[in-house]
Automatic annotation (TrEMBL):
Originating organism: Glycomyces harbinensis
Gene3D superfamilies, per database record: YVTN repeat-like/Quinoprotein amine dehydrogenase
SUPFAM superfamilies, alphabetized: Oligoxyloglucan reducing end-specific cellobiohydrolase
Matching InterPro entries: WD40/YVTN_repeat-like_dom_sf, Xyloglucanase_GH74
Protein's name according to its UniProt entry: Exo-alpha-sialidase
Highest taxon in the source lineage: Bacteria
Record GO biological process: xyloglucan metabolic process
Amino acid sequence: MAYLVLIGTRKGLFTATSDDREQWVLKGPHGLDPDGYTAVSEIYATAADPATGRILVAADSPHFGPSVWRSDDLGATWHEPDAAPMAFPQDLPYRPLDFSETAGIDQPDADQSNTVKRVWQLAFGPQEGRVWAGVEPTSLWRSDDGGRTFTFNRSLWDHPQHTTWASGGGGAAVHTIVTDDDDPAHVMIAMSSGGIYETRDDGDTWEGVTKGITVDYGPDPEPESGHCIHKVARTADGTWIAQSHGPVWRTDEPGSGWTNVSATLPSEFGFAVVAHPTEAGTAMVWPVQAAMDRFPPGHRIAAWRTTDHGDTWHEWSTGLPAEPYFANVMRDGACTDGAPDPGWYFGTRCGDVWAAGDADATWHLVAAHLPDVLCVRAIETR
């Protein structure tokens, strides 16, 4: 078997390949365009479609702004759309990036227009050619041509709860998109700070599904919307695991409510959560101290794994450094490669990337001392 890891950093895209998940060949930073300008771009989102081999990369160029690049040969060559793949409708009233600046009131201004600042998430759907994109300012976009062009989802933008959506520490954006192979019209999204929403009709309507999730950073401990959700994943048997600004939560039916499943974790706080692609009830999180230093608990990097839907969590750290480690894992800095014996991957803010086979359960270093790792995606290539 062979494996490809896409590593998005604050200074470009790196790739790593391996035949055994232990020894890796690193390349990059990749200049996606002929002049190499994208080699220094911030890469907040990547996606790989195992069915077609297509790779998408959201590059935020300091010279030309954001764009979505694609490759159909595992990163050997790259193509950019002839025109901007995303552009807000010209007649759309201007909306501030952070509603706290206007006390939750829209202030249209003829001299201002909505602008795509950054693409935070790319996700292939089960339909042929379908790609969803989560964007800052908080918006959702859909492509039906494999990521060449995207259509703005007006129904989410106009949701009556939008006045409660504000900017989290990273930005006001849809940062999580989870599609459903069993129900192509079902999509779940999460945003900071806005909450969790799902559609059952392919994006025509959206329902907030954060019942039971409590907060300690606002006057209402259980608001209807406006939650700071960091990441959401769906386990192989349909249970949902959400990492919020506070606890980790679980639900079998998002509309019915969530249960706190953080009791056996060293810290409730964290950013990333990843589900096993085939094993029921199995997922992994990377806890972070809730204090503002945002270091791993005890200054030791470690993954924590559950095999019972979050009832219990166990440290999974064989092969990781035992000495003090002062960098954590961002919300999109972890993934699996979807293989039958899946590999787990994560990258840190100090530029280290690690991989472990599910059966091997030992972490191996993929790359060290890269720029700040923002996102990691992996696929089995043969």
